[in-house]
Fold histidine kinase.
Amino acid sequence: MGSGLQRAQSFMIVATLLYRASHLTVGVLAVAQHRPRLPLQYAGLAVALAVSALVHGTAWRRGWFERRSVWADLLVTGCVLPLVLCAWGGAREPATIGWAMLLGGSASAVASIALDRLHALAVIGLLVVTHFAGYQAVGASPAVIVGHLNSLVASAAMTWVFKWYLCRQGRLLDEANARALAAEAHKARYAERLEHHRALHDTVLATLTTLAAGGVDANAPEVRERCAREAAYLRRLIQRTADEVHHREIGAALEEAVGSVEGLQLRVTAQYHELPQVPPEAAAAMGDAVREALNNVRRHAGTGHAYLTATGDPDGHGGVVVTVVDRGPGFDPDRYEPGLGLRLSVHDRMAEVGGRASVDTAPGEGVRVELRWPG
């Protein structure tokens, strides 16, 4: 469709073409009516048709009017044709020349939008003089002459106003689209930064927090292996572009999450049952949310053991239900606000892919985190 300005220009090409077509239709009817007496008018009509095809055909191909073809239309159709019909075409009354005079209205309309202001005013003045002389030559009444000249000027003025308004609206639309694209780009950059923050929170920060707390042996092979994996992950994260998508199966995403926390000495009992195919973004979001839920078990439950169950949606709609359960002390949800991990890494991640997360807990009852996709 092009820009708003281009669409406005295309509309003006079509509008002036329809205006010219209405005048040519009158010409065809008028020439056909006087066929026995004025055969030279056929040649004039053929010239008008050819010049009209040149002007509007060129404008349609190029996207706007070409100045040379516009000048040709003004001089041939608007000025020369009426005078030739008066001199040699047998036009002796207003009815036999009126159709040629009408073409001046559509010629002035094109000139007012295709030429600069000074040239457009000069052209309209030339048309007024030529058509005044033509109507005088065939003895038209003052009312006919004034009405026609008024139509010439009004056609040019109205077309210029339409062009000014449509092009202004087109530019405003283009500016609004540019602002919307800039806002979307800013939003995408913010979303990418947020995703990076979540990823760092769920992986590198979780490992560093565990090492700082002294809960694991930093020299243990599994800990060193996890640190090496996360160093490689950091390198990939820095190099990753916003267009990359994690194409992971849901089972592989969950297993990766389990393996990452088992490296920090959390034992996970996992069971999978009839997992369906899900979109890669949903699989990635569930895997990351499970990793953070297991990190919370390791940090807060004090049991060193978690239970993971993943199954296809029992309603049979192709969804997935994943639960992470621990038998720790639990907490009172009315007294504790969810932390950064639950808000960003669990709830928000699931919401962004059309899923949902819920937490069920009470003092002394452990914690149960349920993830559902779709929500």
